[in-house]
Design a protein that fits this description.
Layout (H helix, E strand, L loop, with lengths): L1 H10 L4 H18 L3 H8 L11 E2 L12 E3 L17 H7 L2 H17 L4 E2 L24 H17 L3 E7 L12 E2 L3 H8 L1 H8 L4 E4 L3 E2 L2 E2 L4 H11 L5 E4 L8 H6 L21 H8 L5 H17 L27 H11 L2 E5 L11 E5 L40 H12 L2 E5 L4 H9 L4 E7 L24 H9 L5 E7 L6 H4 L4 E6 L7 H9 L28 E2 L8 H7 L17 E9 L20 E2 L4 E2 L2 E2 L5 E11 L5 E10 L11 E10 L4 E9 L5 E3 L4 E4 L3 E9 L2 E9 L1
Bound molecules: 1-deoxynojirimycin.
1-deoxynojirimycin (NOJ) binds next to loops.
Length: about 750
């Protein structure tokens, strides 16, 4: 009997997690049957802003052992806590293109959340996706590409949930800028909604993410958290999502419409600013049920979804008590850092992108003297946490600002890390750690090489920093960074520019300086900033990061902030490299670009339309061959399950052809056949990071799933594999194709 039940499940590729969800769902159903309406409403309604130890808290139900659920930010570590790790930001993790590292980072964040008794970690971020380069919160997510973002979502969720913490995929959906974020309508057409903005959420749901946070903005005219269309139709029905939808903080705008529209939990339960606060659920939801406006079955469904995730992640068994105290940090729980500084350093280091390196200026080889210039080389003299939620840009930049921040336990700045190395090497340092040009120039004059530190910051819109209300006001470096670099370069020494940035900046002025010989894109490295940088500057570790977005020559090459009630998303499918490729715009540094101290060769492209044995876990392994036409599989987490079938395998051999060890990210881009509707010329559909000794070769294996070869057919309302010849490009960046081939369907 049992065997007969299990067999079809196994054949259909069910995972253990799915089995445990089935059991958890049954347990949730049983627990639910004993609850009063008021208890159920308490499970779905936050207790109010600052009314509990976490940024979000719900009412406990002791009769079933259910606690006050603790929901806490955020995507780079635990917000409002001492004794936690300030990890590199999401964009730095994306910049590593290293799935193992991304998963380890997620796991370490999960361990810290668990250690403090946090049930739901409000991470990771797939929206904003980053269509607007100036968008204030792009750095919280992983990449301006849905494929890379989706893989990073899955790995981070797997990491967080592997230690029994519920993850939260946010922000669903279309929250691409801070300006007007609580009123703007993101008017996103069906195809780009599916092919760009929903894509990484599909990976999150396929990974069984416990919760999804609906966003502040409207989508096609309706607030996301009140929208039947985005929550019921798209998320729960089309994508087969079985977790719960929780609101961003005060992103709910109705009692009945939100409940019937698919929202399952409201946060924080009251308005931030109007005590006792407007409250849409709580007693108002109870009343709406009694009045017959919201079926009690809908409330049962909310509770069942929430309890099922709590059971599925074993949080009913010995989960640590909540000890975090967001409003009194010194009264908070234990130090939970463990050895996570190692993973923080590794991600920071492997996310560094070397953009320019003339005549092997780097790595440094025991220089006799070196000038370190710029305020970005030192920690804020008032301390790394001097500004609440990192809402200032003073000293070295290691994360953006807003709710997606954590307190630094310490911040290793570039100047102290370089000083230690210089002392060991016998290098004389000349330092000028302000942005004063004259002082910087005299430091440069006193050394054989000059290193200039500049940055660009952004964050969440509730804080304005130096005129930047979340979104950036331009794509220039802050604090006259271009002028500082020009003044230093004019001294005449070989000049190395190190940049900490939330996203693209326009580098044309810097590149126009003849003496700028190297540019190190150090991103948003978190607490281990200086150590990670020294690893790369001195060649202890070869740089291996690749840009997770395009750096343009001109700001006008990107879609920009919309200051209007509606954002019509006129750029359609053409964001980031898709836009540059389609419009024939030459980027300065393209998506996927990054240099190394060694060189790599690519050879032996092999394409087979049969699935390989083994696999990376992104697809089902029970299929072979490619059938043109629409997906037809049953629906499950992530949507139609045949979309995850591996339909083709591409391999190539990558060789380290240089003299030092290094890692290359082999990238696969697909072009759809001409029978498909107009589509970006190439789209990332695979990547593999390979660490290679000099002379060593390894095979890169890319498994293409049905979804990777499909477009969203708006007439059919289905993913479709078009007939014809698909272009396959394997190489070192989006514009550095080394091998090309064809898949014929
Ligand atoms: C608003 C932010 O948009 C969201 O990301 C965060 O989790 C909540 N505030 C709670 O702080």
């Amino acid at each position: 009997m049992l065997g007969a039940l299990l067999l079809p499940l196994l054949a259909a590729g069910f995972t253990e997690a799915r089995d445990s969800w089935e059991r958890a769902n049954e347990r949730a159903g049983r627990a639910l049957s004993g609850l009063s309406l008021e208890q159920k409403v308490g499970i779905v309604t936050g207790v109010g802003w600052t009314k509990g130890p976490c940024v979000g808290n719900t009412s406990p139900v002791p009769s079933i052992g259910y606690p006050s659920l603790c929901l806490q930010d955020g995507p780079l570590g635990i917000r409002f806590a001492k004794g936690v790790t300030a990890f590199p930001a999401g964009i730095q993790a994306g910049s590593t293109w290293d799935i193992n590292l991304i998963r380890e980072r997620g796991k370490a964040m999960g361990e810290e959340a668990r250690g403090l008794g946090i049930h739901v970690l409000l991470a990771p971020v797939a929206g904003p996706l980053g269509k607007i380069a100036r968008g204030g919160r792009n750095w919280e997510g992983f990449a301006a590409d849905p494929y890379l973002s989706g893989i990073a979502m899955k790995e981070t969720i797997d990491g967080i949930q592997s230690v029994g913490v519920q993850a939260c995929a946010k922000h669903w959906i279309g929250n691409e800028q801070e300006l007007r974020r609580e009123t703007i309508s993101s008017d996103i057409k069906d195809r780009e909604l599916h092919e760009l903005y929903m894509w990484p959420f599909v990976d999150a749901i396929k990974a069984d993410v416990a919760s999804v946070m609906c966003s502040y903005n409207k989508v096609n005219g309706t607030w996301a958290c009140d929208s039947d269309d985005v929550n019921n139709r798209l998320l729960k029905n089309e994508l087969g999502y079985r977790g719960y939808v929780l609101s961003d903080w005060n992103a709910q705008h109705s009692t009945v419409q939100s409940a019937n529209g698919g929202l399952d939990m409201t946060m924080p339960g009251t308005d931030f600013n109007q005590p006792p606060g407007s409250i849409y659920w709580g007693p108002n939801l109870t009343a709406a049920v009694r009045a017959g406006e919201v079926p009690e079955a809908r409330v049962n469904d909310m509770v069942r979804r929430i309890l099922a995730q709590w059971y599925a992640l074993d949080q009913d068994r010995g989960y640590p008590a909540t000890t975090i105290n967001s409003w009194n940090l010194t009264a908070g729980g234990p130090d939970v850092q463990g050895n996570h500084k190692n993973i923080a350093r590794t991600v920071a280091r492997d996310g560094i992108v070397l953009l320019k390196n003339d005549n092997n200026a780097l790595p440094l080889k025991k220089p006799s003297s070196l000038a370190i210039i710029g305020e970005d080389a030192i920690v804020n003299p008032a301390g790394p946490n001097a500004c609440p939620d990192r809402g200032c840009n003073t000293g070295t930049l290691a994360m953006g600002w807003g709710s997606g921040t954590a307190d630094f336990p310490y911040l290793v700045d570039p100047v102290s890390a370089i000083s230690r190395r210089a002392a060991a090497d016998g290098t004389t340092l000349a330092t000028s750690t302000t942005n004063d040009q004259a002082a910087g120039a005299s430091a440069a004059a006193a050394a054989s090489t000059a290193m200039v530190f500049i940055n660009a910051d952004s964050g969440e819109g509730y804080i304005t920093v130096e005129g930047n209300a979340g979104d950036r006001i331009n794509l220039d470096p802050w604090h006259s960074g271009n002028e500082l670099v020009a003044a230093i370069a004019a001294v005449g020494k070989p000049t190395i520019v190190v940049i900490h940035s939330v996203g693209p900046i326009i580098l044309e002025s810097i590149l126009a300086q003849q003496n700028v010989v190297a540019i190190v894109w150090a991103g948003l490295p978190g607490q281990e900033s200086g150590n990670a940088l020294v690893d790369v500057l001195y060649g202890d570790v070869n740089p291996s990061g690749k840009l997770p977005y395009t750096i343009a020559k001109s700001e006008s090459d990107y879609p920009t902030i919309v200051d209007a009630p509606n954002d019509p998303f006129t750029e359609g499918l053409y964001i980031d490299y898709r836009r540059f490729d389609a419009l024939n715009i030459a980027p300065r540094y393209e998506f996927g670009f990054g240099m190394s101290y060694t060189t790599f060769g690519f050879k032996g492209l092999d394409i087979s339309s049969r699935s390989a044995r083994g696999g990376n876990g992104y697809g089902n392994r029970n299929s072979s061959g490619i059938a043109a036409g629409p997906a037809t599989g049953r629906r499950g987490p992530g949507g139609r399950q045949d979309l995850f079938d591996i339909v083709a395998t591409v391999t190539a051999t990558v060789t380290n052809t240089g003299r030092v060890q290094g890692a290359e990210v082999a990238q696969l881009y697909i072009s759809l056949p001409s029978s498909a509707p107009e589509t970006p010329p190439r789209q990332l559909r695979g990547f593999v990071k390979l660490n290679l000794r000099p002379g060593q070769s390894r095979k890169a294996t890319f498994e293409l799933r049905r979804r990777d070869l499909s477009f969203w057919d708006v007439a059919l309302q289905e993913w479709v594999v078009p007939r014809g010849n698909f272009g396959v490009q394997v190489g070192a960046s989006s514009r550095d194709a080394r091998l090309t081939g064809t898949i014929t369907v």
